[in-house]
Amino acid sequence: MSETSSSTPDYPAKPPVDNSGGGGSSVPLLALRGISKNFGPVQALQRVDLDIPAGQVTALVGDNGAGKSTLIKAIAGIYAPSSGTMMWNGEEVHPHTPRDAAALGIATVYQDLALCDNIDIVGNMFLGFEETSGGALDEIAMELKTVQTLKDLQVSTVKSVRQLVGSLSGGQRQAIAVARAVMRDARLVIMDEPTAALGVTQTANVLNLIKTLSSRGISVLVISHNLNDVFAVADRIAVMYLGNLVSNGPISKYDPSSTVELITTGASERVEPHPLHSFA
Question: Between β-strands 188-192 and 106-109, what pairing exists: parallel, antiparallel or unpaired?
């Protein structure tokens, strides 16, 4: 993941949210308990406990090598944890492949976006999940669903859903990748550095898209090095340091300075440490 942060304005922080769920179920959409991952003698993750509430944006931050990519790949079914438990809506699950994770409702949008430049937007939205009628591709149905999904997500910068994806800007491509996940009934969208290398306008569009997902009740786990973006959209923040989750909680507990301290040293006097780990 890139360390480069786009030059973005200081977006106003999101207002605090009621993390108790407003009287609803207190069971998180995704709960990780004691997740560890070893690669031979290398301990990439150490007893990570993390809750992802439904309908909220959780920012996962940390320096390169902190374990962020390993953690999201464990959630996405790419890596099997060496130990620990993953709970989905309160039930223990074991996604062994990305298809298993997708069946649960977990979609991951990586930095490369996994889009085909030489295919139009409709083709990319339905790639591998094409709809047919009478033995032929149902182009009309797929186009209508694509248009409706983009409209629902308030993606208004795309002129035509028949544009080749290769002609789109970085922000538009990010929107198409997210829309594809939403159309496949994702309940948790993981976004890996979604604003990396984007300009100011495109970054603002992606951040608005994240807010729209949250407003529709879809959980978002976003990895970012750009703290302006994090404090603009996140409801919660989780900080990784050397494979440990050293702090996590409502965004109101943090400010950029304390977050940088946690990222670089694993501790901050202004933030209560994670109960399992302290590097002070």
Answer: parallel
Strands 219-223 and 188-192: parallel
Determine how many CB atoms are found less than 10 A away from the CB of residue 193: 23
Over the Cα atoms of the chain, what is R_g?
A: 19
pTM of the model: 0.84
Q: CA 14 → CA 11, 56, 162, 229, 271, distances in Å?
A: 9, 11, 35, 11, 19
39-78 burial: b if 16+ Cβ within 10 Å, else e = eeeebbbbbbbbbbbbbbbbbbbbbeebbbbbbbbbbbbb
pLDDT of 269? 84
If 0-12 CB within 10 Å is exposed, 13-18 middle and 19+ buried, where does residue 83 land?
exposed
**Which residues, at least 6 apart from 159, have a Cβ–Cβ distance to it below 8 Å?**
none
Q: Across the strands, what pairs with 39?
A: 42
Please identify which residue in the block is written with the tokens 């948790």.
188
- Cα angle 12, 18, 23 (rounded to 5 degrees) comes to 155
Tell which residue, 243, 275, 233, 236, has the closest CA to residue 259. Answer: 236
CA distance 244 to 47: 7
Q: For the chain, how long is the longest CA-to-CA vector?
A: 66
* Tens digit of each residue's pLDDT (9 = 90 or more) over 213-246: 999 999 999 999 999 999 999 999 999 999 999 9
Mean pLDDT of the chain: 88
Dist CA 140 CA 122 (whole Å): 10
**Per-residue pLDDT, 1:** 42
